[in-house]
Design brief:
mainly alpha; three-stranded antiparallel β-sheet; 6 helices; 3 strands; binds zinc ion
Length: 152
């Protein structure tokens, strides 16, 4: 889902009531429920939310204060998967499929997903992996305290 969000969108639009579609919806709910990690990239004080600039497929983590007073360049709050999709479809003229992949990946990272997205890492992010204490943490992974999806 994180690698091929365009496929997820296609599937949900073609067969929203199917078994696969239902499974995707569960994942999407979990994805959207995961909070953006860490503090605002600008002030470093207030908790961050996900924003994107029009025509850009990169998430910036800002607090609402900095987002409104910052460069004021039309930052758009991205609430989750569908918000990201709407952003891409509304502002990207070309390369939407790639843009969707990039923004979902960027949003996933902002939500604390591991940078190296192996199958196991993705499952862990979605809180479905069986606990394996012996497995070392992937490099660069951060601790996500307060993230209900990161429990092991
Ligand atoms: Zn801030």
């Amino acid at each position: 889902m994180l690698r091929r969000p365009d496929y997820v969108v296609w599937m949900l639009r073609e067969a929203p009531d199917g078994v696969v579609g239902g499974a995707f919806l569960v994942l999407l709910d979990q994805f959207d429920a995961a909070p953006v990690q860490g503090g605002c990239e600008a002030c470093g004080v207030l908790p961050a939310m996900a924003f994107a600039l029009p025509n850009q497929a990169v998430i910036v983590r800002l607090c609402t204060d900095c987002a409104s007073t910052g460069d004021g360049g039309g930052l758009v709050r991205i609430d989750g998967f569908w918000g990201a999709l709407a952003h891409i479809e509304a502002t990207l003229v070309r390369g939407r499929r790639l843009g969707l992949r990039r923004i979902i990946r960027s949003l996933a990272l902002a939500k604390g997903a591991p940078r190296r997205l192996t199958e196991n890492a993705a499952l862990r992010f979605f809180g479905q992996a069986p606990a394996r204490p012996s497995r070392p943490q992937p490099l660069g992974s951060t601790h996500h305290d307060g993230n209900p999806l990161s429990r092991r």
